[in-house]
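Good morning C.,

I know you're traveling, so I'll keep this short. The sequence:
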Amino acid sequence: MISANNVALAYGKRVIFKDVNIKFIPGNCYGLIGANGSGKSTFLKILAGDIEADRGEITLGPKERLAILRQDQFAFDEETVVNTVIMGHEKLYRIMAERETIYAKTDFSEQDGIRSAEIEAQFAEMNGYDAESEAAVLLNGLGISEELQQKKMKELNGSNKVRVLLAQALFGNPDVLLLDEPTNQLDLQSIAWLEDFLFRFPSTVIVVSHDRHFLNQVCTHVADIDFGKIQVYVENYNFWYQASQLNLKQKQDENRKLTDKANELKEFIARFSSNASKAKQATSRKKLLDKLNIEDIPVSSRKYPYVAFKPERPCGDVILEIQGLSKKINGACILNDLTLSVRKGDKIAIVGGNSLAKTTLFQILAGELAPDSGSFRWGGTITSAYYPKDNSGYFTADLNLVQWLGQFIPPTEGESFSRGFLGRMLFSGDEALKKTSVISGGERVRCMLARMMLVGANVLMLDEPTNHLDMESITALNNGLIAYPEVVLFSSHDHEFVSTIANRIVEITAQGIIDRRMGFEEYLENEEVGRLRDELCQSHRALDL
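The tokens, ready to paste straight into the viewer:
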């Protein structure tokens, strides 16, 4: 168990937490949620002892061990992958190192013999003999092959380093596990493995994630950071969302009724306070008015942008025809003879383990990259809008946001139009005058979505648009794409996002595509799709041989 007692933190005049009192109980998984900047990651660091609160204390159960998912990908570059995982249990790793040092001695003394016996007892108690096999199980589950497990961390790419650091946090069954965005850079198979692991995990878990499906699968409780406080709800994210919205609506309805009653009393008092025959009734109503207590509903830190894509015209019969598209990058085959026909009403999720393949396809369709062979053709009625995964190229000029968006608005519109559009995307007042050089990743995404909305396109292409967004912006974009009446082609690692938008799934594999007109949940459970995927994989292995 871990608890926070009267914890408070402020940065200057900005209060992050005020008198937080909360207990996290073993056997429960808590989803820590809140708007960007509300203090989710900060609170995890306070719990881990990485930063100190201004006031209050953190209490960890006696002899309990805490583990946290570390974000520094370069901290273990000179260590092997397996050693990096075992280092998640610091005490065990120290014992292992001392054990190796003693047994490496050529002049083994009597005192060394006594110490080695003590070490062996501790080593066995901490399950040290199974440490390497346990590390291997975790790494395999997270998609790190046996070939990579003996390499040094510096030899791994960024995605695999993140997986190793996650295995490090999970290693040794810590009593309290703190996870900050654990699904980042994980494929669907690894996320499913992690969901199952956490579902069976017996200790305390506190997790920050923008993946709503993941929170729904693993959380027994939701700890909501808002108004400078943390309130715990039993059940998962969907239950929290419904309960919080209901609670807010009830308060608003109560206030509305009280306000209407107050206005009615004020009107009576104003009309009859000078009327002698009604003076007694006016006085009585004045007393009732004084007793009315209209609560000030606190302003939430959560803000939802307005995301609505409105096509200027519907799609015609021909939308997009792709024939035999192939592309190699640095000698590796990324797309292989891809053929696809897009139809009216399609909302196609492009899925698959190779993110470069998906990005390459979008870049070709957007005209940013030429295929090595094959062709594609857009219909004559089609206007497309594209959101690239890497949007940094759009923000190189030293402009404020009003000037930046002004590049994409019609010449007949002025600054007030830009400001109005930016306000809908949560850049109001001075926020609209921020320089593009200082805005965050999430703010860049919102700017790019505003740019897309201005196009009036009838085909939207979005490559991982949920990266960097907070939960509120993801929800707004999710709802906007559900409501959009025309064609969408998109990729995303957000399970809920894909499940609620896509009506067709196109999976890119190394040996071809799997194309099914069905929802994502049905696709994942479809036995025929599973068999076809296995056949494609076996065919690819045969070609490799």
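Safe travels,
E.
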